[in-house]
Design goal:
The protein is mainly alpha-helical and 103 residues long. Helices cover 66% and strands 12% of the residues. The chain is built from five helices and three strands; from the N terminus they run ααβααββα. The protein has a three-stranded antiparallel sheet. Helix 3 packs across helix 4. The chain is globular and about 50 Å long. The termini are far apart.
Length: 103
């Protein structure tokens, strides 16, 4: 079990993959839209999506000529949301300390 958790953390350790999962946590998207939102090249985003699919973090379905990607595991969404929120809270505390107003 710990090995699986480590694999998932490794997948989410790349900022681009974490960004993709975060976007997909808010709704499904095709690779073109994801590349635009992430600010990455289409082939690179496609490669990240392949890795995320192999890890079981992202799924896809065909809609006509498009491949639509989504996250259907609420647990993955909750973990990513928690990590991002915690990062924001810690950033706020660090900024407060730098100004002499933090705990």
């Amino acid at each position: 079990m710990l090995e699986r958790v480590s694999e998932i953390c490794g997948m989410l350790a790349a900022p681009a993959r974490l960004h993709i999962v975060w976007i997909l946590a808010h709704g499904e998207s095709d690779v073109s839209h994801l590349a635009e939102r992430v600010g990455g090249a289409l082939p690179a985003v496609s490669q990240h999506l392949s890795k995320l699919k192999l890890a079981g973090l992202v799924r896809s379905r065909r809609e006509g000529r498009r491949q639509v990607y989504y996250v259907d595991d609420p647990g993955v969404v909750a973990v990513v949301r928690l990590l991002i929120e915690q990062s924001g809270h810690q950033e706020g505390r660090h900024e407060g300390r730098a100004r002499g107003t933090g705990a």
